[in-house]
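INFO batch 0412 | record 1 of 1 | parsing
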Amino acid sequence: MIIPFFKAHGAKNDFLLTWIGEAPARDQVEIARAICDRHTGVGADGWMLVRPPDPEAEASIRLFNSDGSEAELSGNGTRCAAALLVQEWHAASEINIVTGAGLKRLRLVSRDENRYLLEMNMGKPEVIDLYLPLLSREVTVLDVGNPQCAVFVEDFDWDWRELGTELESHPHFPKKTNVSFIHALDGHTIDVRFFERGAGETMSSGTGSTGAAAAAIARGLVSSPVTVKTAAGDLQIDWQGDQAMLTGPAEIVAKGEFYL
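INFO prediction complete | emitting tokens
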């Protein structure tokens, strides 16, 4: 079985994208695990099926994590899909994409060959519990189109990955959760590390950055605009009313075929 793909990343959060018409209709969970494997597959944090726009419908995406589980939304991944639509389908500078968390609107800010800068309306982050005692910490639980658990820390010189593993599958989160570890630097800047549901540690996260910024604002640590410093560089989040606007890069780096 041959599966065509494009490889792209948003701040080193990497994805494999396949046009939905070129993907098998069956065994997609198993395919996601195989194609995302970094030793025996192509390697990525997730596999995305992309449906281009037609006269009757907007473009849409379906996202599988590297473990085969399905994710409602990825901010970085949706930017990658938008970049692909611009490159291959000559989409306009305003790009609408239907995700598992609803319609998302993106705007092309700039392009330099295969490198893109896009702004994405992430919607209104919902703070579910600002101070929830969990595993001897007070975490903030949010919904940004997918579940988020924000943990505030003084530094990253400890095994936060182990705590991320425990929180991801804690019984409080029946569908599991994404986890972000946040260190506030000043009134407009946070440093964040990410442990994503179904993928583990990632270099950056669009939804995780949005949730982290929303949690830090809700706790009075920062105010908009917020620079989110990740292991792969900075993402920018600005509030327009109650809508979080995420600006970040997307780069298409390869095209190929995977032999399953």
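INFO post-check: DSSP finds four helices and 17 strands in the chain.
INFO record closed
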